[in-house]
Amino acid sequence: MSATPDTTADATPEKALTLYDKIGGAAAVDAAVDIFYRKVLNDYRINRFFDDIDMDAQAVKQKAFFTMAFGGPNNYTGTDMRNAHARLVKMA
After folding, report:
1. Which residues of 9-35 are buried (b: 16+ CB within 10 A; e: fewer)?
2. Predicted TM-score (pTM) of this structure
């Protein structure tokens, strides 16, 4: 018998954890999106794409999207990526 208690019966199996859980849940997604947009808005090469964008609303949508994509609660109600970015892509 081991001197340390066996807690594996109480632990959630690794396979059951989503990527969302593994990275730290909402706190990790919030931090990543906030850092990302801070860098984007400070980058003169791409920040013009966000000139007329409500960045608070944009961050909320992005956080909901990543949360859903990473296996967390699905609260994303935005447009699919192809349609959302169509105006930014030149079609040949």
Report:
1. eeeeeeeeeeebeebeeeebbeeebee
2. 0.73
